[in-house]
Amino acid sequence: MAAPSALAFDPWDPAFVADPYPAYAELRARGRVHWFEPTGQWLVPHHADVSALLRDRRLGRTYQHRFTHEEFGRTAPPPEHEPFHTLNDHGMLDLEPPDHTRIRRLVSKAFTPRTVERLKPYVRDLAGELVARLVEAGGGDLLADVAEPLPVAVIAEMLGIPEADRGRLRPWSADICGMYELGPSEETARRAVRASVEFSEYLRELIADRRKEPGEDLISGLIAAHDEGDRLTEQEMISTCVLLLNAGHEATVNATVNGWWALFRHPDQLAALRADHSLVPSAVEELMRYDTPLQLFERWVLDEIEIDGTVIPRGAEIAMLFGSANHDPAVFDAPERLDLARKDNPHISFSAGIHYCIGAPLARIELAASMTALLEKAPTLRLAAEPERKPNFVIRGLEGLRVEVG
């Protein structure tokens, strides 16, 4: 076991954030598990280990279904952060069975493959409209003009959020997601708490309206969803809606701009894609692997485990490095090479196990729709300015991506 303090792993260093992949290679070469003192976490960089741990029921997204904070050797969050934790802790991403099983089963009833498939024409048409506007303007910011409005509109349409209110969703989401970074500041926490309160109040009113007048939307479906007498509580409904919005567009927005930035840096691959649009499905998978939108995912150790002779005790926290796992040469041939035709691509960008992303089919539809629209309507799309990377490590993205057309 190596001490990564001696390595190049530094999630607060702009140079590392700009390109963490060489540091990951070093971590993988040094061993299968590493203690990282600054965050008090065990880092796991190999694909086989990450994939196995995502399915290992000795680990959990929470421990509170089995232990108090004191029993687990942890400190309760500050009381002033309570609105964020109430919102976050009742979503299925941060729950374990039996609550997770119950909520996921109920959400799945309202989030069926047929529902997602029915959205395809809407997604395709909206992507086409957004790209047409970009072309008409001669270019713009691919993030603000296409990557962001598409998934926000789609999930808002699914939830039944009125168009006039949709502009508030992305800022709330961005403020809440700030808490998923390593060691968030007190100012980040304050913004997340404020957004949690405002978003929850908004959804509470919307849910009350849908109870009186149900529609064809997902919120109405969640209200109606029941199974063997089980229902979603109001808090679970609110937390589920926020989770679907946050997860439903944060990853898609970042996958879109990270992907196009990678394509601009690999003109041979972009030329191949422009020459053969049938590559779009494999290109979506490869771009999500190549520059992973969610770099790190955490789990609590509920029962002692051992990795390569290192015993990790109950109460410890494991940080699974998705970006590193997706570049593991034991699984991917020439992982540092962008290969849009890559056939064998078991990336874990959508996680695995019981917490596998419920919105993965929708994300794939959105990513394919925006890529196809850009290939068809903006065949001369090119980079207008070198982009700035966001300072975040966990949720990986760009501040913007300026492009030109024509």
Short key terms for the protein model shown above:
9% strand, five-stranded mixed beta sheet, Cytochrome p450, three-stranded antiparallel beta sheet, alpha+beta, 406 residues, 17 helices, single chain, 12 strands
What form results from the Cα inertia axes? globular
Number of domains: 1
CA distance, first residue to last residue:
54 Å
Largest sheet: 5 strands, mixed
What is the highest CATH level, the class?
Answer: Mainly Alpha
- Assign the CATH superfamily: Cytochrome P450
Spatial order of the strands in the main sheet?
A: 1-2-10-7-3
Write a short abstract of this structure.
With 406 residues, the chain is α+β, with helices and mostly antiparallel strands.
Description:
With 406 residues, the chain is of the alpha+beta class. It has a single domain (4-404), classed as Cytochrome p450 (Orthogonal Bundle), CATH 1.10.630.10. It is built from 17 helices and twelve strands. It has a five-stranded mixed beta sheet with strand order 1-2-10-7-3, with helices on both faces. A hairpin with a 2-residue loop joins strand 8 (305-307) and strand 9. Helix 10 packs across helix 11 (186-212), helix 11 crosses helix 13 and helix 13 (234-265) crosses helix 15 (280-290). The longest helix is centred in the middle third of the chain and has 32 residues, at 234-265. The protein is globular.
